Amino acid sequence: MNILIPLSLGLVLGYALRGKSSFRAIRRDVPLSATVLLLVFLMGVETGKVEIDAGWLTVSSAVFAVLTSAGSLLFGFLLWRWLK
Prior knowledge:
Blueprint: H1 4-16, H2 21-25, H3 29-49, H4 54-83
């Protein structure tokens, strides 16, 4: 919920300054890139704090990936046979 307040304020500020020529002259790419990199870094730090069994997670993820791929291929094959 706390993310909605700054997002709404930014939306209102951007809408209010939309037509201003001085607002267009500000370079926003560098602070945005730095913010995204900081966000990704902090997400990595939070992810690293979580204690998990990496072996079980890797095996279950691989099994899930194989089963979903096989299901998609089977569904595509059955749909192809039905439309043929």
